[in-house]
UniProtKB/TrEMBL annotation, chain A:
Membrane-spanning residues: 43-61, 110-129, 136-157, 169-192, 213-231, 296-321, 341-360
Any Pfam family hit: BPD_transp_1
Record keywords, A-Z: Cell membrane, Membrane, Transmembrane, Transmembrane helix, Transport
GO cellular component: ATP-binding cassette (ABC) transporter complex
CDD domains cross-referenced by the UniProt entry: TM_PBP2
Family: Belongs to the binding-protein-dependent transport system permease family. HisMQ subfamily.
Protein name: General L-amino acid ABC transporter membrane protein
UniProt organism field: Hoeflea marina
GO molecular function (one): transmembrane transporter activity
Keyword Cell membrane on entry: yes
Residues in ABC transmembrane type-1 domain copies: 168-359
Compartments it resides in: Cell inner membrane; Cell membrane
GO BP terms, alphabetized: amino acid transport
Topology within the bilayer: Multi-pass membrane protein
From TrEMBL, chain B:
Membrane-crossing segments per the record: 28-46, 98-118, 190-209, 221-248, 268-287, 342-360, 366-391
Keyword Membrane found: yes
Lineage: Bacteria, Pseudomonadati, Pseudomonadota, Alphaproteobacteria, Hyphomicrobiales
Localization in the cell: Cell inner membrane; Cell membrane
Protein name as catalogued: General L-amino acid transport system permease protein
SUPFAM superfamilies: MetI-like (SSF161098)
Species this chain originates from: Hoeflea marina
Amino acid sequence: MDNQKESIAFLRAANAPTMPPPVSDRGVIGWLRANLFASPRDSVLSILVLLLLVWVVPPIFKWAVTNAVWNGTSRDDCIGPEVGACWAFVKAKFGQFIYGRYPIEERWRVNLTGLLLIIGLVPIAMPTVPYKRENAVYLLIVFPILAFILLTGQLGLEPVETSRWGGLLVTLVVAIVGIVVSFPLGILLALGRRSEMPVIKMFSIIFIEFWRGVPLITVLFMSSVMLPLFLPADVSFDKLLRALIGVALFSSAYMAEVIRGGLQAIPKGQYEAANAMGLTFWQGTRLVTMPQALTLVIPGIVNTFIGLFKDTSLVLIIGLFDLLGIVQQNMTDPNWISPVTPATGFVFAAFVFFIFCFGMSRYSAYMERRLDTGHKR
Amino acid sequence: MANSSDAAAGVADSGRVSLIYDPKVRSYFFQALTVIVVVYILYTGVTNAVDNLARAGIASGFGFFGDRAGFDIGQTLIHYTNDSTYFTAFMVGLTNTLLVAAIGIFFATIIGFVVGLARLSKNYLVQKLATVYVETLRNIPLLLQLLFWYKAVLAVLPSPRGAHALFGDSVFLNNRGLYLPRAIGEEGSGLVWIALLVGLAMWVVIGMWSRKRQMETGQQFPVFLTGLGLTIALPLIAFIITGAPFVVDYARLEGFNMVGGRVIQPEFMALILGISLYTASFIAEIVRAGILAVSHGQTEAAFALGLRPNHTSRLVIVPQAMRVIIPPLTSQYLNLTKNSSLAVAIGYPDLVAVFGGTVLNQTGQAVEVISITMLVYLTISLLTSSFMNWFNSRVALVER
């Protein structure tokens, strides 16, 4: 035994020390090699992109920050050879950009409406908060009534004509009314398109395909020019309401298609189970299939809303002053007119739209991940 | 529902449920109700419209199409003067819309595919740049982008006197537009065009022949290079034989303005820039999703069969990705076409601006004008989607 033991020349008793990976594979160099210079083609691309960035980013930074005018009272501060963005313009007009020509002493009503909206929106957006049904009732029924009273001035409040509304207020009103009205209409149309009754199915298809086939501009033209013709002579709507009708009908067609997608994604067994339980069509829809379908298509609904939110800017073409409209109108203010004012105004409006849309798209992506159960068909 | 009570009594003894609960009867009832409601709404609308029009003294019907238009249009593809009829004006608007849509689709597809592939790149910088592009452009309203290009970029370009000259004084960029040199054909130039067409036709024919031969024998033929060579070489030969029958007309400064050459107006440039960059951001996402949808096993299988990377992507990945890409791509093309109607905001004379704007204001015939405008877009939508459905059914792989 002893001999045998001695015949083993070397026996490693402990693990060899772990060596760090070679220098070329770790740290900054490793990262650069893997991500920027993995192949000759990659290297060329990286260098080209770097050159592009060096060419583009510093001028933009100079325009937006170092050469920008942050404080000022008129166009004189924003005129000069190397002047960048005229943020003083945005600062001076900020109130208008948000509220339009809404009377200054009544702006608290707009703020209160915004607060009421946030109170309803935050809990419904968080999947873990209970009372979703009550919350939805608040958002779809109670809130619109309160908002209507507050914004237009009912019940003893000072009335404010819609022609004085403007800015972000109009953008949000058009988008939210569009979504709130299109939601029930979209559900009905989606059910109609899946219905077994040929007449109802045909009407739904015609309605949906018509609105989806025409541009929103023509819809807005139609609601502003043609709609008054189809109403009795003594009925007249105000401009904002006409635009709202157009937007609501337009978006309900898109909403219907989203919801139909959700209804189609639910296994047939769910419908059959609801029938087998003795539920009527409406009971089954309300209690079994629709809740599942709507949960499935939350990302789709949010995406529709993003599209609608961006499309609200089109109302400026029929003479309403939404955020973009009011920014554009203020650019021609003689007190502020300068070569950099248009770019400044557009960048500001773009920034506001971007914040809203990007936020919503992140939320939609988050819901998509949450809803993704991992087992796809 | 008038017959429900006696009908219910009648069925009771036969042991069946009453008619109120008969799904068939209910379905007929609700359908009839829908028809009545829709017909009522349409009827009231039409009678109101007739009353209102009569009261306002607005003519109806399509007779105005033959009247003299009397206004000028900045950009026309077909012959048009202010003496032309409203119908010609309508055609000008329509062709302008189709032109913008076609060029916009062309650029949006190219940019979209490049950016979509860039988003999948392993190169950190390229991928991040593409992501920033997509996230920025698709979260900002198109109308804002159009106005930005038009009012904040192109309108503040220098006047013709200080125009940016590119490519050694042959291309000029100023606030009146982009001035390109124009080739004017002289005698014999027709032959060059014919040669070009012949080259293209031969490309198609060779493509069909090569496909057939490959199906039968498995042998491949370099269709792309041969086709490209023919399309370039044939017109070139014709060009030389006929003795260079073209005169190039350069734009030049005369007084305060540029003359000669071919001018691309700033409205058109802004519109093309805006809609193609915007739509490209959506197409990029579609392309990315389409390629990600092809499972990695397909790539591995192709490599295992000994295909080279570029053959793998061309013969294995792309055909399968196209299946996923084409349906949403179609709807993006339709969106682009519909979005081209935003031209009205920057004054490009498209269908909505010319017909739904100027013609509507001059004639006051809102119902006819807007219905026709909508009908045109609806037709374009339906035609495009049926063409793309046909194309899709050709590309779609037949499973099992």
